[in-house]
Write a structure and sequence with these properties.
It is a single chain. The chain has 474 residues and is an alpha/beta fold. The protein folds into two domains: 276 residues, Alkaline Phosphatase, subunit A (3-Layer(aba) Sandwich), CATH 3.40.720.10; 85 residues, Arylsulfatase, C-terminal domain. The protein contains 15 helices and 16 strands. A seven-stranded mixed β-sheet has the order 2-11-10-1-8-4-5, sandwiched between helices. The protein has a four-stranded antiparallel β-sheet with strand order 13-14-15-16, covered by helices on one side. The protein has a three-stranded mixed β-sheet with strand order 6-7-9. β14 and β15 form a beta hairpin. The radius of gyration is 22 Å and the shape is globular.
Length: 474
């Protein structure tokens, strides 16, 4: 069996690391040269726990049960289905030794041994170093605690959590060189607050970082909640916005420096060429786009388009880009395909991406779906990507529709543009099909008169017996 290293960031948007004028990440650029790059990969959810649970199950949140973050709602609002087979458990059954270092945030037990993981330290266990803050950017609002979005500390990268978890993984690999091993390394960076060593911050001293063009966007055609969220950040000066963005990019550089240490170790010990390395993120971050930071209800590419690199054993398909629409749920079945293992854990909502890389399947035929259940305020969204078009179902306000080829920054909501009416109905229909294919029966059965708010219904005459019981026909 081939060794596996799974590198995951928290809140890393793809374009931050793969647009040339943004983060300084030379090691990721080198890894990209040896990997298959899937540039059109989307998170299936915009927050941590649902997205992370989808990575280890290959299932959408409505199927694995963790539809919200573990620390934000009571168990009845979001509960991981512990009966499901997960990626670590499957690898354990195949004879792998496993470690997990860094942020877990998938379910509430924090008993990673129940998932087949031999050694671990998570956010519950990681040491906390005292840092000397030399710069801090804070948002203030009446009645709320001040919130620090970004900052700089005087100490070097060696005191960072990122350095610590990568060193733990290197130590684990050094004790399991004979394999097969699987090392999960999950960094908090670049999640807010973007706290970075001064040396990383100073890498950008000659970069002209400014507010994005969409910072002061006219949001009148968008759901009003975006205006309300935009107001959270209006107290920041342009200099503060630029400094926060600089801290975010510096956080990416901090992670990149740790990847360099790990890859150097693998190469020095003859482990690099024959190891499967996956690099991805649970979701992205607004990083100032549309006048916002962080993530959540915003359906923009800044939050949903995540990096996905896969360096295959033997460096097969080295340097290739696969344009297929992929998502978080596809990662698990792709790993199974690469290592030649059969998945015996029941349903998967994703599929292997290798047939698309090999040309056995057409990239044009695949769509991608994300679902959002709204955190504490219970906003409901579904997002469907098809070709270069994107449909957003917002149960709380107007829907959204974007042509990503003509409008990559998603400034023009086309949901009421008659020229796109047929496209809107088509993508809505594709959304319903994905809803049915993945067993999202709660949404599929929303045919009650007070639920009929989409531009097109599910076109499904199947009647749920429970629906018949409580809604008499006449």
């Amino acid at each position: 069996m081939k060794n596996i290293i799974f590198l995951m960031c928290d809140q890393l948007q793809r374009k931050a690391v793969f647009d040339a004028d943004k983060a300084i990440v030379p090691e990721l650029r080198e890894l990209e040269k040896d990997s298959i790059d899937f540039p059109r990969t989307h998170a299936v959810n915009a927050i941590c726990s649902p997205a992370r649970a989808s990575i280890i199950t290959g299932m959408l949140p409505h199927n694995h049960g963790m539809v919200d973050c573990t620390h934000t709602v009571p168990r009845y609002r979001a509960d991981f289905d512990a009966s499901l087979l997960t990626l670590p458990q499957k690898l354990k059954s195949l004879g792998y030794s496993l470690c997990y270092y860094g942020k877990w945030h998938i379910e509430r037990s924090y008993r990673l041994e129940d998932f087949g993981i031999d050694e671990y330290e998570t956010e519950h266990d990681l040491p906390k170093n005292k840092l000397t803050t030399v710069k801090k950017i804070t948002v203030s609002q009446p009645g709320y605690r001040d919130y620090s979005i970004a900052g700089v500390y005087a100490e070097g990268e060696e005191v960072s959590e990122e350095h610590y978890v990568y060193q733990k993984a290197i130590d684990f690999i050094s004790r399991h060189k004979d394999g097969p091993f699987c090392a999960f390394v999950s960094t908090y960076a670049p999640h807010d607050p973007y706290m970075v060593p001064k040396a990383m911050y100073d890498l950008y001293k000659d970069r002209n970082i400014r507010c994005p063009e969409s910072w002061n966007e006219d949001l009148s055609t968008k759901p009003n909640i975006y205006n309300r969220l935009h107001a959270v950040w209006k107290s920041l000066s342009p200099e503060d916005v630029a400094a926060a963005i600089r801290c975010y990019y510096a956080s990416c550089s901090l992670v990149d420096a740790q990847i360099r240490r790990l890859v150097s170790y693998l190469k020095e010990n003859g482990l690099y060429d024959d190891t499967l390395i996956i690099f991805t993120s649970d979701h992205g971050d607004m990083v100032g786009a549309h006048g916002m930071f962080c993530k959540g209800i915003t359906p923009y590419e800044d939050v949903y388009n995540i990096p996905l690199l896969m360096k295959l054993p033997g460096n097969k398909h080295r340097g290739e880009k696969c344009p297929v629409l992929a998502d978080t749920c596809d990662i698990l079945p792709t790993i199974m395909d690469i290592i030649g293992a059969e998945w015996d854990g029941g349903r998967l909502d994703g599929e292997s991406l290798i047939p698309y890389v090999d040309g056995q399947k057409s990239c044009d035929d695949k769509v991608s779906l994300a679902e959002f259940f709204g955190q504490r305020y219970s906003y409901t969204q579904r997002i469907l990507w098809s070709g270069n078009l994107k449909y957003v179902f917002n149960a709380f306000d107007d829907d959204e529709f974007y042509d990503l080829e003509k409008d990559p920054d998603e400034m023009a909501n086309l949901i009421h543009d008659p020229a796109y009416l047929e496209d809107i109905r088509r993508l809505c229909g594709q959304m319903w099909q994905r809803v049915k294919d993945t067993g999202d029966w709660s949404l599929r059965d929303a045919q009650y008169c007070m639920h009929r708010i989409l531009p097109e219904g599910p076109n499904d005459d199947t009647v749920n017996p429970a629906f018949s019981m409580f809604n008499k026909s006449i």
